[in-house]
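User: I'll paste a sequence; please echo it back and then give the predicted structure.

Assistant: Echoing your sequence first, then the prediction.
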Amino acid sequence: MSGAAAGLAVAAVLPPAAGGPSSVAETFIWAGVCAGAALLPDIDLPQSTIARTFGPISHVAAHGINKASAMFYNVTASGRDGHRSNGHRTLTHTVLFAFGLGIVISSLVTAFAKPAIIATLFVTLGLAIRGLAGDWARKHGPIMTTAVTGLLSTLAWTSIPPATGSTSLGLAITTGCLVHYLGDAITKDGVPLLAPLVPINGRRWHAINPPALVCIRANGLVEKIAILPALTLTTVALAAAALPTTHTG
């Protein structure tokens, strides 16, 4: 939900001249991509919810990304970081990953336009559905989730013109990842935002988080009764504002 809200907010102020959405359909595609990207960093954890989004395909991908992330960590770690066999909250939880992936996606959209937009939407929208409609996705399984994602992506394909904008779609990916990092950063475990580029206290993989007094527990009471309702209302308001208005008279 935080990714959807952030996506709608950024899409509303990003002009088409800068590669922003040039239609209502593209605005909602932008928001959908951002919502899915807000879950994307946890693809480094095979036990995560999103690792089961597309069944065996995403599960195998999660295992591979976990191992690759652990390898990257061990290659770049300083002597004070120690060795890791589990890559969760390493590479995919850094600004290096967020901006690097964003650049790749924007480059693909610039080169291939509409097909790259829909391919990006398909992957991220599946993650968003798994996150926003978790109970439904668990009940109906990955095949139904994939089918619904494919249907919505097909509808999106028909709703945007062949010559489309959204060359900034990579920014939606980056924004979603940064939203994820912010959520992780306010938990007790924190997130290694600047790793491995900026050493902190002699460690290249230093987790950043606020003092324990203001940390929240993931999926805890504060998240459920305060943060989630506020984000839901914000998302609904931003979505309504993005819809075209009709004038009579």
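The CA atoms of residues 11 and 44 lie 27 Å apart. Helices lie at 2-13, 24-37, 56-76, 95-112, 114-132, 134-159, 169-185, 221-242.
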